[in-house]
Amino acid sequence: GGSAGGARPKFMVDLDLSNLDHIRYSRGIWDRNMCPVILKVPMKDQDHWQRIEYVYSQLARKAGLNIPSVYLLSGSNKSLAYFAIERFDILKEGVRLHAHTFAGLLGINFRETLPDYSVLLRTTADLTKDHRQVSEAYRRMVFNYLGHNKDDHAKNFTFLMNKKGDWTLSPAYDLGYSSGENGLHLMSINGKRRNAGLKDFEAMAENFDIKEWKEIVKNTCEALKQWKSKAIECGVSQKLMNGIHERIKENTKRIGRV
Fold first, then answer.
1. What angle do CA 226, 232, 234 make, to 5 degrees?
2. What CA–CA distance (Å, rounded) separates 114 from 68?
3. How confident is the model at residue 186 (pLDDT cuts 50, 70, 90)?
4. What is the rounded distance in angstroms from the CA atom of residue 72 to the CA atom of residue 252?
5. Mean pLDDT score of the chain, rounded to an integer?
6. CA-based, 20 to 30 A from 233: which of 23, 46, 176, 203?
7. Distance CA 247, CA 187 (A)
8. What does the CA dihedral 140, 144, 149, 152 come to, rounded to 10 degrees?
9. What is the largest CA-CA distance in the chain?
10. Other C-beta atoms lying within 10 Å of the C-beta of residue 220
11. Helical H segments across the chain, by residue range
12. How many CB atoms are closer than 10 A to CB 118?
């Protein structure tokens, strides 16, 4: 189906929602039960990153983020797992939306230029003219920092435009655990690339009039508390499950009581 880019192998295929064992080369349209998805595949035996991304997607949805439909698939070798995420640029009625990454809009190389989240929120406000979209971008910022997703570069955020020229922030994608290069996030909060605290979340909220920011932080903490139980359900290895749990615990403890 052709690689969709990125560091890990993935393919653009159609998934049969009535029989998740059935996939085909993508036709780029919804066709009855056939849904266009991006399928992420394991690189080797005991590759658990697909399971982790599936769990993170569930936790993000519980935290209130806009998440596409996702599926955790297994083949004949039950030790391998495959992660499928519905393509948000192809609508059921056959409409194809224009998609542009945050990095593309800024005209930057996402590996070399590391913007602050304030630039993302300002771009969201300017493009969409919708404060709900700005709140959604804020939710993703909070989730990435508390969930220890340090692969939060400018290409992992996308904007969609319909035929009327209206822009929206796309559903969230590429959510998962990442320790980051030198332990640093790829986008900063309030000038910090690690160990952001409650005061940093508050400062960002004040700058962009996010009145419900405390509720967002609290809901994110509550959702992330379910990491262990969901990881067990999805077969994440004990070692990875415990290691990620410790990082999440450190991050949520740092912000204290909301």
1. 100
2. 26
3. very high
4. 27
5. 93
6. 23
7. 18
8. 60
9. 52
10. 29
11. 49-62, 102-106, 117-128, 131-146, 198-207, 213-224, 227-233, 238-255
12. 18
Q: What is the mean pLDDT of residues 216-227?
A: 97
Which tokens in the block code for residue 72?
């955790």
Residues 220 and 63 sit within 8 Å (Cβ to Cβ): yes
- 81 to each of 5, 52, 121, how far by Cα in Å? 19, 10, 34
Place of tokens 């690189």: 43
d(CA 57, CA 140): 12
| Band (251; pLDDT cuts 50, 70, 90) | very high
Q: What are phi and psi of 155, to 5 degrees?
A: -90, -5
**pLDDT value, residue 16:** 97
DSSP annotation of 6: S
What pLDDT does 110 receive?
85
CA–CA–CA angle 39, 52, 64 (5° rounding): 90
CA distance 122 to 120: 5
Give the pair of three-digit tokens for residue 46.
Answer: 């005991």
Residue type, 9: P
d(CA 245, CA 240): 8
SS3 (DSSP) at 240: helix
Q: Compute the distance between CA of residue 88 and CA of residue 169 in angstroms, rounded to an integer.
A: 11
Check residue 208 and give its pLDDT. 97
pLDDT of residue 44: 73
Ramachandran category for residue 49: left, alpha or beta (phi over 0 → left; psi -120 to 50 → alpha): alpha
